[in-house]
Design goal:
Number of domains: 3
Number of strands: 31
Radius of gyration: 32 Å
Bound molecules: flavin-adenine dinucleotide
Helix content: 40-55%
Mean pLDDT: 89
Oligomer: single chain
Distance between the termini: 40 Å
Low-confidence stretches: 489-516, 523-531, 541-548
């Protein structure tokens, strides 16, 4: 009989569990997997503050569940579940009733307000995509209002931002907001020092999951960014336009239009309502060591929903993404064992590798390591690791599609240099400026092909002399007086001219350097390894020492190149002609494609491949290196204007994205 698995929640834990189960039961038609979420998309909760403070666009944190599970054995259902009957084994949503044999609770958590008057009604939370969008719109609006506000009290109220909570969500939000306020103040003509950002918490230090030294560092950074941190202060009330908190027995009321609530979490409402299950912490569901709900062997718990104290630990597992990842693997494994009866269930012994906190887009703190020892990372590496971890996660969830889009959002289109690598990757040149370069590169390749045709490349084998000539130039330079010419090179009348010919085949260069002495400028240390060698050779004409040409050859991997030459390319006249023709035809195709701006990416990538081949065989002269730079410059988007790609690419993209295996392997770019 068919077994129905339902996963409730498409957050980190739910998505990863579903993916692992789909892989496990790929060929098993007796198992049906359904993922239910109230939203059509998966939200990157860890990046909410970046959207809320306008660092990145909203689509960077919203990933379509349909796309994630395209071509996979998971049915995605959009519905909000309001009741779970654990006896009848059904979930009831707004649209339907869903029976299950096995249920995975991945419903996550929600903000906890601890009964503080007005907190839920008057504060802005940061726990969903919509929350982030609402906060971003509100912040822009208060600045807009402040710009024209004539009443100084109201103006101050509009420009005062409170953040309740100095855990890592609160600190990340405060840092991000402080950074954004710099440009908002400029945009809306408000003096920056009129903007107040205040972070309040009951605790005695910020981000208590860090060491005291790192907490102090985080606080100093916030203060440097203009955030006032008030610790050991309890919030009493939040109302329409004000906040009341108590600090050192003093009750303080302040006027504000914005309180952002990050002061704590509790289990999602559906967990709270699941009174048939044992609860722990704040409405989290108590799990046994196999991550099943206590007393309900067909209900599993993953991610933030779970309350579980691992053996030997003092505290429950943290509500963090790493716990989602570990528990998803564990639940997928145990569930598969239970359904198939094969293998053994594993008890949950997670090991966590640290905490990372970003304070704005340019600064981060990290405490990483194993269970026994953790160490702090300098800011640059903390930010680097954070991005790397996100990328690893995206590869699991939406493959290269999401990795590309993440890199685009975080680095290539980042606003106001708000990244740890600044704005170096985001400054953009309009594509039309690349058109002359594209045409020049294309024209040069066509010219190269025409010269080669005139030299007889299409019907006279030339490669033996060409290669040996080039080799002799470089060997002579390296070995100096010890150089004994190789018989082929000596015999070849084309030896030196051919060597200088490299890519350009420019007849002027050939004439000038004939009879030149060669001198290795930069070679020995590298070349003798015979694995990697970059030789730079200066060719000096005896008669006129001021006339020099500089050539480079890359001997990597020397063994492979030599083997290719003697066993494939030079084995017969026929093989030589084949490669010569191939090069000429390639040059023509690259030239035409670049001039027409059609398949520019492929043409410039192929252009780079040819140049690398030349560098590894005959060498590449200084005069040709601009082609490498040009190939790189037009690689992305070089043909997107004033070229045929402008019309062809959108159509091709549409067709490409419809192919089932493309959808399944996420090999497209949105
Ligand atoms: C601003 C912010 C920054 C953070 N930064 C970090 C960080 O840097 N590192 C880190 O490790 N962690 C961070 N966290 C915590 C991390 O986001 C959570 O641990 C993680 O999201 C938990 O994943 P989950 O899948 O258990 O739950 P969630 O991601 O909350 O997903 C639960 C899903 O269940 C769905 N759902 C709930 N109830 C229902 C229902 N009744 N019907 C249908 N669907 C339902 C929801 O729509 C949601 O999609 C951060 C959190 C926030 C808010």
């Amino acid at each position: 009989m068919e077994k129905r698995i339902i996963i409730l929640g498409g957050g980190y834990a739910g998505v990863l569990t579903a993916k692992k189960l789909a892989r496990r039961f790929k060929k098993d038609d007796s198992v049906q997997i359904t993922l239910i979420d109230k939203n059509r998309y998966h939200t990157m909760m860890t990046e909410l503050h970046e959207v809320a403070a306008n660092r990145v666009d909203e689509d960077s944190i919203r990933i379509s569940l349909r796309k994630i599970f395209a071509g996979r054995k998971v049915d995605v259902v959009t519905d909000k579940i309001s009741v779970i009957d654990y006896e009848k084994q059904t979930l009831t949503g707004e649209l339907d009733v869903y029976p299950y044999d096995y249920l995975v609770m991945a419903s996550g958590s929600q903000p906890a307000y601890y009964g503080i008057p007005g907190a839920e009604t008057y504060s802005y939370k940061l726990w969903s995509y919509n929350d982030a969008m609402r906060l971003r719109a509100h912040t822009t609006k208060v600045f807009e209002k402040a710009m024209n506000e004539t009443d100084p009290v109201e103006k101050q109220r509009l420009l005062t931002f409170y953040i309740a909570g100095a855990g890592f969500t609160g600190v990340e939000m405060a840092g991000e907001l402080a950074e954004w306020c710099d440009s908002l103040a400029e945009q809306f003509e408000v003096a920056r020092d009129e903007v107040r950002i205040i972070e309040v918490d009951m605790l005695d230090r910020v981000v208590p999951t860090l060491t005291p030294e790192l907490s102090a560092k985080a606080q100093r950074r916030l203060e440097k960014m203009g955030v006032k941190v008030i610790l050991k202060a309890g919030i009493h009330e939040i109302g329409d336009g004000y906040i009341i908190f108590k600090k050192d027995d003093q009750v303080i009321r302040d006027e504000t239009r914005t309180v952002i609530w990050t002061a704590g979490t509790e289990g999602a409402q559906i967990n709270k309502d699941s009174t048939a299950l044992k609860q722990g912490g704040r409405s989290r569901l108590v799990a046994d060591s196999y991550l099943r709900a206590e007393g309900k062997n067909n209900v599993y718990i993953v991610g933030d929903s779970m309350f579980y104290i691992p053996e030997g630990a003092k505290a429950p597992v943290p509500q963090m993404v790493e716990n989602c990842e570990h528990s998803a693997s564990e639940v997928a494994h145990n569930l598969a064992v239970e359904i198939t009866g094969q293998g053994e269930m594993k008890a949950y012994h997670p090991s966590f590798h640290g905490v990372m906190v970003c304070i704005g887009g340019r600064y981060g703190l990290a405490l990483v390591g194993g269970d026994k020892k953790k160490f702090a990372l300098p800011s640059f590496f903390a930010m680097f690791v954070k991005h790397l971890i996100n990328i690893v996660y995206f590869i699991q969830v939406l493959g290269w599609n999401k990795v590309f889009s993440y890199l685009r959002h975080e680095f290539f289109t980042i606003r106001k240099k708000r990244s740890f690598v600044g704005g170096h990757f985001s400054n953009r040149t309009p594509s039309f400026m690349l058109v002359p370069l594209r045409l020049l590169l294309g024209g040069t390749w066509l010219f190269e092909a025409v010269v080669k045709i005139q030299e007889g490349w299409m019907n006279t084998p030339k490669l033996t002399g060409f290669f040996s000539g080039a080799a002799s130039v470089f060997e002579k330079a390296i070995q100096g007086a010890n150089y004994v010419p190789d018989a082929t090179a000596a015999a070849s009348t084309e030896a030196v001219p051919a060597a200088t010919d490299a890519v350009a085949s420019a007849s002027t260069a050939v004439v000038e350097t004939t009879g030149a002495v060669t001198q290795a400028v930069w070679d020995k240390a590298l070349v003798n390894w015979d694995i990697f060698g970059l030789i730079q050779v200066e060719l000096i004409k005896i008669a006129n020492a001021s006339s020099s040409l500089i050539g480079y050859a890359l001997r990597f991997p020397n063994v492979v190149t030599e083997w290719m030459k003697s066993n494939v390319i030079l084995v017969s006249e026929g093989s030589m002609l084949f490669f010569q023709n191939m090069i000429v035809v390639s040059e023509i195709l690259i030239g035409l494609a670049l001039i027409g701006g059609l398949f520019t990416f492929l043409a410039s990538a192929y252009s780079l491949v040819l140049l690398v081949m030349f560098l590894m065989t005959t060498g590449l002269y200084l005069g040709q290196w601009w082609m490498v730079a040009a190939g790189l410059a037009v690689l992305f988007g070089g043909g997107s204007v004033f070229g045929l790609d402008y019309y062809a690419m959108p159509w091709l993209k549409k067709v490409w994205k419809k192919i089932p295996w493309v959808k399944k392997s996420y090999l497209y770019n949105d």
